[in-house]
Amino acid sequence: MEDGFKVVSIIGVGLIGGSLALALKQRNLTNKIIGYGRNEERLKEALKLGIIDSYTTEIREASQAELIVLATPTSVFERIINEMLQFLKNGTIIIDVGSVKESIVNTFERILPKGILFVGTHPIAGSDKTGFENAKGDLFKNARVIITPTENTDKTALEKVSKLWQQIGAQVEFMTAEFHDKIYALVSHLPHLISFCMVNTVADINKNFIKYAGTGFKDSTRIAKSSAEVWRDIFIMNDKNIFQCLEVFTENLERIKKILSQKDLEGVNQFIEKANKLRQEID
Amino acid sequence: MEDGFKVVSIIGVGLIGGSLALALKQRNLTNKIIGYGRNEERLKEALKLGIIDSYTTEIREASQAELIVLATPTSVFERIINEMLQFLKNGTIIIDVGSVKESIVNTFERILPKGILFVGTHPIAGSDKTGFENAKGDLFKNARVIITPTENTDKTALEKVSKLWQQIGAQVEFMTAEFHDKIYALVSHLPHLISFCMVNTVADINKNFIKYAGTGFKDSTRIAKSSAEVWRDIFIMNDKNIFQCLEVFTENLERIKKILSQKDLEGVNQFIEKANKLRQEID
After folding, report:
1. Which terminus, N or C, of chain A has the lesser number of Cβ atoms within 10 Å?
2. Residue B217 belongs to domain with CATH number
3. pLDDT in tens, B253-276
4. Contact, B88 vs B67, CB < 8 A?
């Protein structure tokens, strides 16, 4: 091992935490991965599958690594860091992999003492699948990873963290946490919110109708299977940006409703073609 | 050929019309497939690919088949049938493959003279892909096909049409056109409408953000690539049912917005888990 970190603690060994553990081991970027979690049985299982090298439910032990990765639902971050504070060694690097950045980055900068080096990161590699059973060592290959440094971010830590993500195949991009949250409110958080609403609309009208769903419904609501724990936190932590997007979405609903009420064929056509055009750009 | 129809006219040789043509030929359920359309170049191409056996842009010629399949955008059906009327032979069976049924079935029953036998059908096998280039002979294998007979539907024609769909692998199910339109407003038309609105929301806020979209966004908006021509007609012909679904959808948006505003973690959790549970039923 030339690069990397001797010991890495993964706090929350799920899909993302587990995949990162596998990727680091496969690229020989660490000597030891410690898995930390609340459920010892699950950790034992992850150890048995070779995803982690050891496990602990003791926060003291998890705090001894050179790199600590927070990969639990985001609402737990603050509590965990507060519990870790007394055990952290000077020079320890902490990253998170949460889908919301501004409130997390702000919280960490407020709480963490000088000498503990935090870098906010967001790998765009989620899935409706959860748990380390679905973890893959190549999950981050060609995936975008957004890193959100601030003026307080330690330059050396930032470089080490960026390099680590790149070494496991990710395309690293830097932006402010604020800008990140605006982008992902629109292209990720809102679509999830809408997808949950779509499925609940079926539940409210007649849940038996769902058996008639074709591939269109299935694809467009696949993300409605996503973890409640994870998305609950994202929605609450990025609510203001999501509400702004929701306003424009609601305007679009009103617009198409009006056009349809007027039986305006050409108007409907233009509305759909506008969507066709932009959506085709990302194929 | 024991079963089937000697000559079949496909009016509109696109994804569905073309796939049906291929399926009928592969199962030896017809001696000849005539493709009818407005664009001769396209018909020549379909002939060259072996999807149809001959083509015509003459409505008279297309009207001579034993089975006529309407597979154009639904708004064109009425005009085409009116043009065909003077040429149709007694005993001719006409089916459509439109995604809306009530208004179509009503129109056909009003227009068609006794002796011309109409059966409304809807194969649940659409795609965002369009055109006969994407046609597949097994598109209807294990696909659901809804057939919507009325008290006026000819029993023999109904039997022949049902058998035809079954012979190419479809799961046939009967229901009223009215009930069909309620179900598909919810599980197909509304999701398409929402998907167009979602992509247009990105267009309105900042279309450059779309490059940050991950698989969640891509899957949930795949149907936003669907044909404007086809979906324009579906929305307008089934607007009342779609509006009813949209009302419940909007209530759900308001509900989650309220829960989020109250930072009600448990409420958000329940909202998401409700969606998780129903969506998991169709995997």
Report:
1. C
2. 1.10.3660.10
3. 999 999 999 999 999 999 999 999
4. no
pLDDT for residue A1: 65
Number of domains forming the structure of chain A:
2
Give the angle subtended at the CA of B142 by the CAs of B139 and B146, to the nearest 5°: 90
Quick one: pLDDT band at residue B2, thresholds 50, 70, 90?
low
B79 touching chain A per CB within 8 A: no
Q: Which residues contact B277 (CB under 8 A, 6 or more apart)?
A: none
DSSP A196-207: HHHHHHHHHHHG
Q: How many residues does chain A have?
A: 283
Look-up: residue for tokens 């993302």? Answer: A16
Whether pTM exceeds 0.90: yes
pLDDT for res B1? 65
Complex ipTM more than 0.90, yes or no: yes
User: What's the CATH code of the domain at B56?
Assistant: 3.40.50.720
A147: chain B residues, CB-CB within 8 Å = none
Question: Are residues A269 and A152 both part of a single domain?
Answer: no
Which of A154, A175, A196 is a domain's end point?
A: A175
A107: left (phi > 0), else alpha (psi -120 to 50), else beta?
Answer: alpha
A190: pLDDT strictly greater than 90: yes
A113 and A228 share one domain: no
The residue-averaged pLDDT of A103-132 equals 93
Domain housing B196: 179-280
Q: Evaluate if residue B141 carries a pLDDT over 70.
A: yes
- CA B74, B78, B81 angle in degrees (round to 5)? 115
Average pLDDT over residues A169-177: 98
CB contact B272 to A (< 8 Å): yes
Asked if residue A140 lies in contact with residue A165, where contact means CB atoms within 8 angstroms, the answer is: yes
Comparing CB atoms, the residue among A225, A257, A280 nearest residue B279 is: A225
Is some CB atom of chain A closer than 8 A to the CB atom of B113? no
pLDDT tens digits for range B13-61: 999 999 999 999 999 999 999 999 999 999 999 999 999 999 999 999 9
